[in-house]
Design brief:
Blueprint (H helix, E strand, L loop, with lengths): L3 H11 L5 E4 L6 H12 L5 E6 L1 E3 L8 E3 L5 H14 L8 E7 L2 E9 L20 E4 L2 E4 L2 H4 L13 E2 L9 H14 L10 H7 L11 E2 H7 L2 H7 L5 E5 L14 E5 L3 H15 L20 H14 L8 E5 L3 E7 L19 H9 L9 H11 L6 E5 L4 E7 L6 H7 L9 H13 L2 E2 H8 L3 H13 L3 E4 L6 E4 L31 H6 L3 H8 L8 H12 L4 E2 H7 L5 H14 L3 E3 L11 E4 L3
Parallel strand pairs: 1-2, 11-13
Antiparallel strand pairs: 2-6, 3-4, 5-6, 7-8, 9-10, 11-12, 13-14, 14-16, 15-16, 17-19, 18-19, 20-22, 21-22
């Protein structure tokens, strides 16, 4: 069991994490019990620590926690033990220790993961799935229906759901032949190759076992005709979008060209790969059989694995398409459905999939890597081709998973020449790679840096901070929301004559830009909207009224958080974000202007139009 000092050291190095939660001094409340529930449930985490009596100083640039006395330690221990015994459907037995830090009493609580037979742990007198919690990154999240499949092995997945308006007539026979052909290459002796069409569909979980007539969701997606999919699942498709430049621009008429694809998933895989391949510069991509360690092109197999990963793991409950977005410098693949594995465990052995029927077909035909190794295979292939490693972002709030592949020969001669400007700063290889990513994407956070460098959270935090102190990066946000954009040394003023060499210890960059002018913002508004704004009290407590004003503003154009905070006459952007913007996004009333980079330095919000 770790000590309080060790936990404080970790919190002050990297803030809260997947395995450590900080709570201030006070009574045992719902928030503490939600953390107990989450640590008890999270698969393969092994549990975690709750440090009670850790006060966070939000006035500092970097997270800093100090001890605050918890008072009557005996009562606090007794209350926690009693709640853990009675609050949940099964009792939880934490290990509790009271320690002194700087002369103040704090409490260390170790919560172990319960056995699979006891999961999910959830609050009594509340209904599943929301009565249970999981530990996702540094936060506790209410469980959704997808999460329960991790706990109930006998619960059917959505791709086994029967579509009663379908029949065998909706099957595309040619796709069954394609499946048999692909399977024969992998396993010529497979007994499945001798099955009739109906027996094959039954064996694959694609046909209702009772009627032997109706298709399951997986059956329709894998082998159904174009017309049947359009009829039953009209929004389940893949869009290939070509965006000129490196940013998602605002003009809806001229920003991109798009091709939408639907039909049997086996065919969609090949169509998407071919479409992206054809759109890359000639000679940039090599055929899979020609892949060599010194290749400068995006390996076909890495691209295919990324596309298969999206088709295999997306949530088909969501009525929205997969988007494969081709920018000049990268490919982004965005699929509905957050990762069932936490970001800290992406690429680790083992697989958790929403769609076992679909996944089994992709694995059988060798379209996907061995279970749980797809992300590692992408990383290996891109490393062999001397390309930047892929990065992944799982957004639970938006129910979205994003894969990014830089179309960039990592560290090319031009890159090495560019990096020579910073040789005197003593950067390591991880930091040099981070600088290339910031130059290409204009932003980086701890998660992306870890995936790029294979560093742990603590080391990533330290190396990013060092680059910030050198003036290479500028920090935005605080705590868990921290990200970095190019600093003044990456965007220097044009030299005049005999430029000075870069200083080893430059002045810290400006971190508090001038807020937008209230008068300038009000000048563009109609009298009706101004009346709504002026109708808000100085300490308006009606959140619905404030949300309505925000929605009205964002219906006319996209507003940044700073602009909205100014117009609402609030001083704290975090307050506006936490109490209004985030709930409105989660409620489907607002959306990000730059959804592909949530921490975009120019992020703004616009209304969701029905």
């Amino acid at each position: 069991m770790r000590t309080a000092k060790e936990l404080f050291d970790e919190l002050n190095a990297q803030d809260e994490s997947t395995e450590v939660e900080a709570k201030g001094a006070g009574p045992i409340n719902r928030s503490i019990m939600e953390s107990v529930c989450a640590f008890s449930n999270e698969p393969d985490l092994g549990g975690g620590y709750i440090l009670i009596g850790a006060a966070k100083d939000d006035t500092r640039l970097f997270p800093y926690y100090t001890a605050e006395d918890i008072g009557d330690a005996d009562k606090l221990q007794s209350d926690l033990a009693t709640n853990c015994n009675t609050a949940f459907i099964v009792p939880v037995r934490p290990r509790i220790a009271v320690e002194m830090v700087n002369g103040l009493k704090v409490m260390v609580v170790r919560v172990d993961e319960v056995s699979p037979a006891q999961k999910p742990v959830y609050f009594k007198h509340e209904t599943l799935p929301h009565a249970a919690y999981r530990r996702i990154g540094p936060t506790d999240h209410r469980c959704e229906e997808d999460d329960l499949r991790l706990f109930y092995a006998d619960t059917d997945s959505y791709d086994r759901a029967v579509l009663k308006r379908t029949s065998l007539a909706d099957i595309d026979p040619g796709v069954l032949d394609t499946y048999r052909s692909l399977l024969a290459r992998v396993n010529p002796a497979s007994e499945v190759l001798t099955y009739s069409d109906i027996d094959l569909l039954m064996a694959l979980g694609c046909l209702d076992v009772k009627t032997r007539e109706h298709l399951t969701v997986g059956g329709l997606l894998l082998f159904g005709s174009y017309a049947a999919q359009r009829r039953e699942l009209p929004m389940v498709r893949a869009d290939y979008i070509r965006v000129p430049g490196t940013e998602w621009v605002a003009d809806p008429d001229n920003r991109f060209r798009t091709v939408d694809m639907r039909g049997p998933l086996i065919k969609v895989v090949f169509r998407l790969v071919e479409a992206v391949h054809a759109d890359l510069p000639k000679g940039f991509m090599l055929e899979e059989g020609q892949l060599q360690a010194d290749s400068t092109g995006l390996p076909v197999k890495a691209l295919r694995e990324a596309i298969v990963n999206a088709l295999m793991h997306r949530s088909y409950r969501e009525n929205s398409p997969i988007q494969v977005i081709r920018y000049d410098n990268r490919i982004e693949i965005r699929n509905p459905g957050y990762s069932l594995k936490s970001e800290d465990h992406l690429g680790s052995p083992g697989s958790q999939t929403r769609n076992p029927v679909i996944a089994a077909v992709f694995h059988d035909t060798n379209l996907a890597e061995t279970k749980g190794s797809g992300i590692r295979a992408m990383r290996r292939l891109l490393e062999q081709a001397h390309l930047a490693p892929p990065t992944f972002e799982s957004d639970r709030a938006q129910n979205l998973f994003t894969t990014r592949l830089l179309l960039h020969h990592f560290l090319s001669p031009d890159d090495l020449k560019w990096l020579m400007r910073f040789d005197h700063l003593g950067l390591n290889d991880n930091q040099k790679q981070g600088l290339i990513m910031v130059r290409e994407l204009e932003a980086i956070d701890n998660s992306a840096y870890r995936q790029l460098s294979d560093a742990d959270t603590l080391r990533a935090s330290q190396e990013l901070r060092q680059m910030r102190e050198l003036g290479l990066l500028e920090q935005k946000g605080k705590g868990r929301a921290t990200y970095y954009v190019p600093g003044r040394l990456l965007n220097p003023e044009p030299p005049t004559t005999n430029p000075e060499p870069l200083a080893a210890n430059p002045e810290p960059p400006l971190t508090n830009p001038v807020p937008p002018s209230d008068n300038a913002l009000r000048a563009e508004l109609s009298p009706k909207i101004l009346g709504s704004l002026d109708g808000l009290k100085q300490r308006e407590s009606d959140k619905a009224k404030i949300s309505a004003v925000i929605e009205t503003l964002c219906s006319r154009r996209a507003y940044t958080l700073a602009e909205l905070t100014t117009l609402l006459k609030r001083k704290d952007e975090n307050y506006v974000s936490r109490n209004f913007i985030k709930p409105m996004i989660e409620g489907g009333r607002l959306k990000y202007l730059f959804p592909e980079v949530i921490n975009h330095p120019e992020q703004a919000y616009e209304v969701v139009r029905q």
